[in-house]
Amino acid sequence: MGASFTHAEGVLTVTPIAKTAKAPLLDANESGSTLRFLLPVAAALGIDAHVTGRGRLPERPIAPLLSELCSHGVTFDSGRLPLSMRGRLTGGDFTLPGDLSSQFISGLLFALPLTGDACRITVTGRLESEKYVEMTRALLHRYGVHWEKRENTYLLAAGAAYRSPLSYSVEGDYSGAAFYLVAGALGGDTEISILGKDSLQADRAVLDALVLAGAEVTENEGRIRVHAQKLRPFTFDVSACPDIFPILAILAAAAEGESHLVGAARLRIKESDRIAATASLLRSLGGSVTEHPDSLSIFGNGRLSGGRVDGANDHRIVMSAAVAAILADAPVVITDAEAVNKSYPAFFADYQLLGGKVDGIELR
């Protein structure tokens, strides 16, 4: 779209857009957040763009977002990917459902300050994954943009403008850390550093699930340590933190008894059908599960047999299967292992560094 970046010694330097690109091709690949952020931002910049993606992304919902953009000055030649867009986004009143994707709201929170107009976003129904929206609001506040929240409404005053804080330190990622935190509960001590205790990240809830399952969790000065204990079955609502659903299913398999992961309906429309893919993962390794429309029941006995897992081209399924190998009596073979490159390219290198044995994939 016209920005530029340099990366050196752990520092990413961003040069803002001075002149927008002409008719760029915006490829979101398989990333739902990329797509749902790009669409309103490109619209607010007045970029006539071609937008595409692959895998299951063209099937994932964007219709409510496209409808609101169309009502505010933007046109699309299709209701799904690939598509072309024209026009410039204007401010005003927007209404979006809260039960499909918090990314719709975050995308507008990013984009609408560029219009300079007064804006209001009203969320209908329950806003699932609300912490992701709060994380967006907190970040924007650091950049000089102040969205006021009133019940189910977000308000922005006219004349809002971005002001860079010049430097910003990115927190450690609870979504990636969750796999090793659970691994600590399955196979011994794990300690991870640089994870914020006051973080707004929704996936920090993995710590709550670990405590509920009986693991010992201690936090000290940005370090989190998980120590294995005898685990107990648990019930956990993942509606606010759906990304940790697969790895929590592995945690449940390590406990003796019946566990339940509930509030998972939206996982049917991720990169894979993650309820079905997680159920398949555990069954492939000798586990016992019952799949429901919006939940999964896991009947754990503390061990798995090993076997071959279909990674479903889904990074979270692949990483969860790797952690499941800790419980397995025989090797675990995982297809589509390269899917980890979507979010955590160094996963298997770190896995090996911590004592795991890996064959058949290039370590990064």
Structural commentary:
With 364 residues, this protein is α+β, with helices and mostly antiparallel strands. The protein has two domains: 4-156, Enolpyruvate transferase domain (UDP-n-acetylglucosamine1-carboxyvinyl-transferase, Chain, Alpha-beta prism), CATH 3.65.10; 174-353, UDP-n-acetylglucosamine1-carboxyvinyl-transferase, Chain, CATH 3.65.10. Helix content is 28%, strand content 24%. It is built from ten helices and 19 strands. The protein has helices at 32-44, 63-70, 102-111, 130-142, 174-187, 206-212, 245-253, 274-284, 315-324, 347-353; strands at 4-8, 11-15, 25-27, 49-52, 74-76, 83-87, 92-97, 119-124, 148-150, 153-156, 190-193, 216-220, 223-227, 235-237, 256-262, 288-292, 295-301, 307-309, 332-334. The strands form six sheets. The chain has a four-stranded mixed β-sheet. β14, α7 and β15 form a beta-alpha-beta unit. α3 (102-111) runs parallel beside α4 and α7 (245-253) packs parallel to α9 (315-324). The protein is globular and about 60 Å long. The two termini are 29 Å apart. The mean pLDDT is 95.
Short note summarizing the structure:
The chain is an alpha+beta fold and 364 residues long.
Helix content: 25-40%
Largest sheet report: 4 strands, mixed
**Roughly what is the average pLDDT, rounded to an integer?**
95
CATH 2nd-level architecture of the largest domain: Alpha-beta prism
Distance between the termini: 29 Å
Q: How does the helix and strand content classify structurally?
A: alpha+beta
